[in-house]
Design a protein that fits this description.
Elements lengths: L6 H34 L2 H22 L7 H30 L3 H29 L4 H55 L6 H23 L1 H13 L3 E6 L4 E5 L7 E4 L2 E4 L4 H9 L9 E6 L4 H6 L7 E6 L2 H9 L1 H6 L9 E5 L2 H7 L4 E7 L14 H10 E10 L6 H13 L2 E9 L21 E9 L19 H12 L19
Parallel strand pairs: 5-6, 5-8, 6-7, 8-9
Antiparallel strand pairs: 1-2, 2-3, 3-4, 9-11, 10-11
Helix pairs in contact: 1-2, 1-3, 1-4, 1-5, 2-4, 3-4, 3-5, 3-6, 3-7, 4-5, 5-6
Protein name: Polyamine aminopropyltransferase
Function: Catalyzes the irreversible transfer of a propylamine group from the amino donor S-adenosylmethioninamine (decarboxy-AdoMet) to putrescine (1,4-diaminobutane) to yield spermidine.
InterPro entries: MFS_trans_sf (IPR036259), PABS (IPR030374), PABS_CS (IPR030373), SAM-dependent_MTases_sf (IPR029063), Spermi_synthase (IPR001045)
Length: 517
């Protein structure tokens, strides 16, 4: 066939298209995994669903592509236009289905299947095109194609977390990827193989690609308005602050006249009007005994620190939180600083921005009280912070006679809650179990976490632990006045937690995590 360039140059141009298309395809996969993890939770499950469905669909696409090999140029042109449109819009549609319908699993599987079929059909068609340019041995051609495909996947896999996600976000990043995909596919067909097309098909493919690019450009112009509308649909109309840090999305909601609700990574972390119930129950039983040096793992909102600072004899409060954006907000937002009583302005507070596991490995200072105010153990990213190894590190920095208090997820999920308790015992701690009802934090998992109302009842399971002994669950004589906790309510909370007890639970370790989302 007659090409506008030499056969060798044409071969390299097709391989360049393979490279670009492979990079775009992997970005689509990673974007689906990232967004599904944020919207649905449990990164392991979402990654498994997306990748397994897409690999299966790629096999289906390879089989279906056999019917297009006789018209490979036209087939590839239509294929890349469809892939650019579907892949580019996938993030917006997935987010929209969650925001307005409340369910995104069906959309996730649908996009995984569709994108997988389209990606799977690429290589057979490209193989046909490159063989029409050059009649080299088939083995060498296959090797070249797969080499370009794998290198492109590497570039796409690195570009997504280090360039697209931090600079553009999921929505704009997916739209830009779709545009690049459309340009690469259209250029190969409409320029390199234009003499292989009839005039009618050249016009049709040109119009299709222009339409795809116009749709992607229009969607990109609407991203900010779309995000604002979707955020209102998810969080309500009273969004006060919405920022995306390098770790998660942080949202404050509520009218200016009342305490704010805090959402971290889409999960209700603090319900402003009654958060004191949780934080009083979390902190004050652990302060019964020595408490001059306090370590708070998590708790970047400053609310646990607020409770510890109510004791005049507390000398230092060390807060270790992964997300500097949460800490900045807790220092600066008027509603949140009023809620935490300006805890970060107290000279006794020290702040470290770090992963709690890594921080414990590197520090040897001893603490009288350790408050573990971390996300639920059922969230995959938090599993290591509820492991036997993690509690071993915590035990190493706990002073003699000290206490560790752990937020262990709701007792309504008893397998998870009592696995945390079994893991603490395996690390050498004695434990006392209790829970707090109506505590202003939200459960993880499911769209309902975004729609927590002021009247709903939540359940937070807590565990007090001490090295080598079972700690007494109660309040110390120097406990400041509390709004909700008393000795009687603690006894009732302990009895309620014990009624959910499950025996025979195995401890969770780094190599064998036992928590379920």
């Amino acid at each position: 066939m007659v090409l506008p360039v030499s056969p060798e140059a044409g071969r390299h141009l097709v391989l360049a298209a393979v490279f670009v298309c492979a990079a775009c395809g992997l970005v689509y996969e990673l974007e689906l995994v990232a967004l599904a993890t944020y919207l649905i939770g449990d990164s392991v499950t979402q990654a498994s669903v997306v990748l397994s469905v897409m690999v299966f669909a790629m096999g289906v696409g390879s089989l279906l592509a056999k019917r297009l090999r006789c018209r490979a140029a036209v087939g590839f042109g239509l294929l890349e236009a469809a892939l650019a449109l579907v892949g580019g819009l996938s993030a917006m549609v997935l987010y929209a289905s969650f925001a307005w319908i409340g369910e995104s699993r069906i959309a996730l599987v649908g996009f995984s299947l569709t994108i997988g079929v389209l990606i799977g059909a690429e290589i057979p068609l490209l193989m046909s095109l490159i063989q029409r340019i050059s009649r080299r041995d088939a083995e060498g051609t296959v090797a070249d194609l797969f080499a370009a495909d794998y290198v492109g996947a590497l570039v796409g896999g690195l570009a997504f977390p280090f360039l697209l996600l931090p600079w553009l976000g999921e929505l704009t990043g997916a739209l830009l990827t779709g545009a690049v995909n459309a340009v690469a596919g259209g250029a190969v067909v409409l320029w390199l193989f234009r003499r292989d097309l009839t005039a009618r098909w050249r016009t049709r493919l040109l119009m299709v690609n222009v339409l795809v690019l116009a749709l992607l450009a229009g969607a990109a112009m609407m991203v900010d308005a779309f995000e604002a509308a979707a955020r209102r649909a998810v969080y309500g109309s009273e969004v006060r602050v919405a920022v995306r840090t390098g770790v998660q999305e942080v949202v404050l909601t509520g009218a200016p006249s009342r305490p704010p609700d805090l959402f971290l990574g889409g999960r209700l972390k603090v319900r402003g009007h009654d958060e004191h119930r949780y934080h009083e129950a979390l902190v004050h039983p652990a302060m019964r005994g020595p408490h001059e040096r306090v370590l708070i793992l998590g708790g970047g909102d400053g609310l646990a620190a607020r409770e510890t600072l109510r004791y005049a004899d507390v000398r230092t409060v060390t807060v270790v939180d992964l997300d500097p954006g949460v800490i900045r907000l807790a220092r600066s937002d008027p509603g949140l600083t009023a809620l935490n009583d300006h805890a970060y302005d107290d000279p006794r507070v020290r702040v470290f921005t770090a992963d709690a596991f890594s921080w414990l490995r590197e520090h040897r200072e001893r603490y009288d009280v350790i408050v573990s105010d971390l996300p639920d153990p059922g969230i995959t990213a938090s599993t290591k912070l509820y492991s036997l190894e993690f509690y071993g590190l915590a035990r190493r920095v706990l002073a003699d006679g000290g206490r560790l208090v752990v937020h262990a997820g709701p007792t309504s999920r008893p397998r998870t809650y009592w696995t945390v308790e079994a893991t603490l015992r395996a690390a050498g701690f004695g434990t006392a179990a209790y829970r707090v009802r109506g505590a202003g934090t939200g459960a993880a998992g499911g769209p309902e976490r975004f729609r927590a109302t002021a009247g709903e009842t939540t359940d937070r399971g807590l565990l007090i632990a001490a090295e080598g002994r079972t700690p007494h669950l109660g309040l110390g004589p120097d406990t400041p006045p509390l709004r909700s906790e008393t000795e009687d309510t603690l006894a009732q909370d302990a009895a309620a937690a014990e009624r959910t007890r499950l025996g025979g639970m195995a401890p969770s370790t780094l190599v064998h995590p036992r928590y379920t989302p």
